[in-house]
Amino acid sequence: MAAWFSTEMAASLALIALLAATLALGACLILWRGRQAQRRSLVEREAQLATQALQLEEQAQSLAAFREQFAQLGAGEVGAGRQLSRVQRELVALRNRVDELDSVQQRSAPYATAIRMAERGAGVDGVMDACGLSEAEAELLFKLHSAQRQR
Length: 151
Description:
Blueprint: H1 2-119, H2 124-131, H3 135-150
Helix pairs in contact: 1-2, 1-3, 2-3
């Protein structure tokens, strides 16, 4: 009986060893497939990171370009501000000149009226009264005007 027990025991042990080896092989296969999946996932993640790194670099370049444009706009704004100040000064000068011309025109209006009256044949006294001129001014206008008329 001892021989049979030994053979039966040896067969059982062999069967258990075979099952253990099969389980170990299955576990190794499962672990190997898990590692392969992890490697694929890692490769995909590296590709995503590389793409994101390129996008980040492009964004950094865009940001640098925007900063440069902003600096140029700021410089242009300063130049435009200077030009606006210059134009405002010129406008003030032109307004002053127009005011001066208006003043001169208002002061010379009586003389223009007196010349027209003299051309129409008004007398010295009438011109003096209507235009507020002195007798000497009225006579001078008549002399000048009559000199132009005779030519």
